[in-house]
Every structure is written in C-alpha cells, then in structure tokens.
Amino acid sequence: MLxxxxxxxxxxxxGIVIGSFLNVCIFRIPEKEDIVKTSSHCMSCGYRLKWYDxxxxxxxxxxxxxxxxxxxxxxxxxxLIEAANGILYVCIVWTGGLGIESLLYCLMASALLVxxxxxxxxxxxxxxxxxxxxALGLVRAATDFANILTYLIGLFSVSIVLAVLYYxxxxxxxGGGDVKLMxxxxxxxxxxxxxxxxxLGCVLGAVIxxxxxxxxxxxxxxxxxxxxxLGVLIAALWGDQLLNWYVSxxx
Length: 251
Fold this sequence. Notes:
- Helix 3 packs antiparallel against helix 4 and helix 7 (about 160-170) runs antiparallel to helix 8 (about 175-190).
- The protein has helices spanning about 1-30, 60, 75-95, 100-120, 125-145, 150-155, 160-170, 175-190, 190-215, 225-250.
- The protein is mainly alpha-helical.
- It is built from 10 helices and no strands.
- The chain is about 70% helix and about 0% strand.
C-alpha cells in the first residue's frame, strides 16, 4: 500500500510541475511569445517571478492568488491547470500502469489541456500542438509495430471524413485544426478508439453547449477542440472497456 501511495504521490507532483509549464504555453502561444527563453513574469506589472513564486499550487495559495509585487489578482487557471494535469497523470498510470503507452498518454493529456483552453478562448488550435501529438503517434506506432495498421487506419478513419466536410462547407461546419487533431490522435489511439473518441466528443459537445446556451446565453458557434479532447481522454482511459461492454450487449 505504501509503495503505491509514494508512486502516485510522485506522479501527481510531477504532473503539477508539468502543469506549471502548461500555463506558460496557454498564455504565451496565442501571443506568439517564446515559451522557453522568456522569464516567467506577472502579466500586469512585469515582475520577474522568483523560484518561490512558481511552486505549483502552493505559491498561488501562499500569495492568496495575488502578485507579490503589485497585488493584482492572478488567474485561478494557474492552480486548476496544475491540479488537472497532476490528476490526469495519476488516472492514466492508475488505469494503464507504468509503461510507454501511459507515458505517451500523459504527454497527450498535457497537450490536450493546452489545446483545449486556447481553442476555447480563441477558436484556434495551434498547429504546433497537433504536430506534437502526431509525433507521439509516430512513437506509439513504432513501439507497437505489430499493430501498425491499426494506427495508420486511425490516422485517416475520422480525419478524412472531417476533411471532406471541411472543404465541402468552406470550414463552416468544422475547423481545420479539428481535422488535424483527429488525425494526430487517431495515429496515437488507433482506429477503434479514435472513432469512439469522436462520437463521445460530438455528444458531449452537443449536450454541454446546449446547456451553456440556455444558462449563459452562449451563441451557436462552439469550439470543438475541448470536447474532442475530452472524448479522446475518455477513450484513452476507458475506451476498451466501453467497447467491450457495448459489444457484449449485442452478442
């Protein structure tokens, strides 16, 4: 029991540290700012953060959500993204164990977090993030070469349909970033899971956005990236169980 607690505590801590970097990506990528060389700073006064200002979750709580120098309120996004990334890492390893697949899924989950927040705010999915997920897919296909056909079919099974829809409607029905996202994730998950992920994403998007339209007066246009990402995460974590359960209902 104790080794498991230590293992998952370590994974959570590692996840929130990576989550801190994800916040940098979320804020800087849309502004075309460098995510590596530029020092972390307050978005209001420019104060360069010290190491003790950047301890994941803890620094936000210690500073009561305010900049140490100017007192401006910090976005609650900082601890939320850090905690979410840590929890996702724990869930992925808890479900899939330690191994190359879990490592790739953890990196994918981090990329999807960044992608989702950016798309939700800007209605654009950064090409670099899709490219990163595609690279993860290439690694997955190479490390499970015996099943490479599954991954290659996954690359096209959903994305080619969306691509046709994209060009047929001039981008009004689906975004180009969504097409690339489904291609990259399809290569990583394989064709069965990516089809499931797409269906889950569409259902979740429809239900949640209708609720948002009723509750907060949102318009009809929605960013699909967050919902597709949620579908991908669900499929990655529990897709095989869901598919087996579904098949068992008909056999």
